[in-house]
């Protein structure tokens, strides 16, 4: 009888503890399912309900999607393949050289740009193929390049890439008798900020398929591209690898690495 009275709703202490327990449970659910997931990236894009489902361990595909939900934007449609980098009999350097007459105005007569357009001389084949196809499909924005790329056939792109890859590659101009020390970001990156060393992908130590040759590029072009990755205005890098790194870099670091790769002495 005593027990019944204790667990009775009429007992004011019982009522209070039930209310307190319910309140605490609700609070921790808000923290665990709403607040904590909201701190992680992608929360806003998927909505509160999807995040609650995810926090509770529901596989992403189960969470309800509104009928008009759009699939996440793709950064590029180009699938990089080793064969793109290899010379192939189906690619003609000679034909590429003829087609490249349309490009000399900005990219220079031998692929060395005198303006702020990127150099193409010695650029990796697969980079030229990928970038031209990204312009063609609107995955990389540039009024000039999108208009030009639209008129190129697949074979034209292959031949242009073969031609430009065959030209001598610019090296960073060494300005002082002693070698210019490379910035720490270039050599070792910034592990705490998830910035990998540039040389692990862009040549020097290793080249990752699709990572462009940077040495000798115009400084303004390098700064512009890093800022575009940083702001997301350029988003054609697969897995956001450059966007993530550029976001972690300060404007000062961007200026420093750009000056280094451009070979300018002002750094
Ligand atoms: C009127 C000037 C102009 C002409 C002509 C031109 N380009 Fe470009 N090109 C540019 C500029 C500027 C960029 C950089 C645009 C950007 O910010 O994405 C560029 C970028 C590129 C890139 C990307 C390079 C990289 O490192 O990411 C490739 C590849 C390229 N052009 C190839 C060509 C080819 C091939 C032609 C000839 C069919 C051509 N371009 C003609 C101005 C030009
Ligand atoms: C994990 C590999 C990786 C690392 C590390 C890396 N990059 Fe990149 N970077 C890429 C790839 C891949 C691309 C080409 C993206 C695309 O497909 O458009 C790229 C593109 C670029 C471009 C655009 C060049 C052009 O001509 O279009 C610049 C500039 C650049 N990276 C600078 C840097 C700098 C500076 C660092 C070091 C702080 C760095 N990257 C580190 C993989 C890397």
From TrEMBL:
Per UniProt, the keywords (alphabetical) are: Electron transport, Heme, Iron, Metal-binding, Transport
InterPro entries listed in its UniProt record: Cyt_c-like_dom, Cyt_c-like_dom_sf, Cytochrome_c_Oxidase_Subunit
What SUPFAM superfamilies does the record tag this protein with? Cytochrome c
Which GO-annotated molecular functions does the record name? electron transfer activity; heme binding; metal ion binding
Q: Does the keyword Ubl conjugation apply?
A: no
Q: Return any one Pfam family short name.
A: Cytochrom_C
What is this organism's lineage? Bacteria, Pseudomonadati, Pseudomonadota, Betaproteobacteria, Burkholderiales
Q: What is this protein called?
A: Cytochrome C
């Amino acid at each position: 009888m005593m027990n019944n009275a204790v667990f009775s709703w009429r007992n004011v202490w019982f009522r209070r503890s039930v209310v307190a327990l319910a309140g605490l449970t609700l609070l921790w659910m808000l923290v665990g399912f709403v607040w904590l997931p909201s701190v992680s990236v992608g929360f806003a894009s998927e909505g509160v309900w999807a995040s609650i489902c995810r926090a509770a361990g529901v596989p992403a595909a189960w969470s309800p999607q509104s009928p008009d939900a759009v699939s996440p934007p793709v950064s590029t449609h180009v699938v990089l393949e080793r064969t793109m980098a290899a010379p192939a009999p189906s690619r003609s350097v000679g034909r590429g050289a003829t087609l490249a007459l349309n490009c000399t105005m900005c990219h220079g007569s031998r692929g060395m740009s005198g303006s702020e357009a990127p150099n193409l001389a010695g650029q990796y084949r697969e980079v030229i193929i990928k970038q031209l196809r990204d312009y063609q499909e609107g995955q990389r924005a540039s009024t000039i390049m999108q208009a030009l790329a639209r008129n190129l056939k697949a074979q034209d792109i292959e031949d242009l890439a073969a031609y430009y890859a065959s030209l001598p590659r610019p090296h960073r101009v060494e300005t002082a008798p002693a070698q210019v020390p490379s910035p720490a970001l270039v050599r070792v990156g910034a592990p705490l900020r998830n910035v990998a060393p540039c040389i692990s992908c862009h040549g020097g130590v290793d080249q990752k398929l699709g990572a462009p040759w940077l040495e000798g590029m115009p400084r303004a072009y390098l700064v512009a591209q890093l800022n575009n990755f940083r702001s997301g205005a350029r988003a054609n890098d697969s897995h956001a690898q450059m966007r993530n790194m550029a976001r972690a870099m300060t404007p000062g670091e961007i200026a420093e690495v750009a000056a280094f790769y451009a070979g300018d002495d002002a750094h």
